[in-house]
Design a protein that fits this description.
By secondary structure, the chain is of the alpha+beta class. The chain contains 3 helices and 7 strands.
Length: 193
């Protein structure tokens, strides 16, 4: 049983590593996207599964990221666009799989190639969704979207929390990132890739 240690934050510019107690993260009280007075809050939800099996999925929620009344709807639209992209990615993948399987059944190719083509179908499906939904969406809706904070989880036995993970997070706006670093007493570290 790991005892949760206090929140520890390290950063390299606008990229952060958070260990210990995630509920202890503090947010500078201004809009994370533009600096105006905040009216709403958003959460950053990150999930990972290092062992397989649904019950081994680890989720970490960083709560209370402040946004103003102008940026909050833009952040929500960006979240929606990401959901649509994931959905489209699956849809394209299944569609390409069917195409490949039909093509292979007519050309008498091996089972091994069939397996590889399923992987390829979903990879291409993801690429297509990134291009057609994410990039095109960003281009068309540019003024109606705002880039949310992003993050993921890394396995870390030294993380000092029950979940055994550290958060790697990026704050897009540099000014907000430096205020976040100051508020959370972030140590300057080298994060790299
Ligand atoms: Zn704002």
């Amino acid at each position: 049983m790991t005892i949760t240690s206090p929140t520890q934050v390290g950063h390299e510019k606008n990229k952060f590593i958070i260990r210990g107690n995630f509920d202890g993260v503090q947010w500078p009280q201004e809009c994370a996207n533009c600096g105006r007075s905040p009216t709403n809050t958003d959460n950053l939800s990150m999930s990972a599964n290092f062992k397989g099996g649904r019950k081994n999925t680890i989720t970490v929620l960083l709560k209370g990221i402040p946004y103003c009344e102008i940026c909050y709807p833009k952040i929500n639209r960006s979240h929606d666009l990401s959901c649509i992209q994931i959905f489209a990615s699956g849809l394209f993948g299944v569609f390409l799989c069917v195409l490949f399987i039909v093509w292979q059944s007519q050309n008498d190719t091996s089972v091994l190639l069939c397996g590889a083509s399923v992987v390829a179908a979903f990879a291409i499906g993801y690429g297509l969704s990134w291009l057609l939904v994410k990039q095109l969406g960003n281009l068309i809706l540019k003024s109606k979207l705002a880039e949310p904070l992003s993050g993921n989880l890394k396995q870390d036995p030294e993380a000092g929390n029950v979940k055994g993970v550290r958060v790697v997070m990026t704050i897009p706006r540099i000014e907000y990132a430096s205020k976040f670093a100051e508020l959370n007493n972030a140590q300057e570290i080298t994060i790299g890739k």
